[in-house]
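Something for you to look into today, if you have time. What I am after is a single protein written out in full by you. I want to see for myself how the chain folds. Could you add the entry underneath, on a fresh line?
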Amino acid sequence: MARRGTTRQQDTVRTGPRGPGAGPAAPDDPAAARAASARLWLRLFLLALLGAALTSSLVLPWKVLALLLALFALAAGVVGLVKAIGAKSPRFVVLALSVGLAAALFLTAGTAASVLLWPITQTYEDCMSRALTLQAQRDCEDGLRSLDGFGGG
């Protein structure tokens, strides 16, 4: 309903087409839109990296989830870095994102090695789940170093 002294079109402009309090409108400024997009990709990168770090210590087959999250973190980090540079974000943000990408790369490589060497990882995890003493844990680690479970070696 129009307020006294205003037209219906003026009310729509003031309250938005969806009514009062319907949420923020899309930014008209291209620089603000680029910054918002960079922030979104930065959040996605951080969440994926955190999820990958937390799930990487799980046993097989859950390490596959960690690998998928780490791969997504790498992709989101690269997109976020490009968008942060395009949005002229502060140098600290770009530097922190670069360091995070390096961490994601190492996490991806380590998790991928565990998944690709599935029989060895499975043998080690089974051995560690049964190890009750420090000596038994050392024996499991020695078996991992000698690649027990890999082709009967």
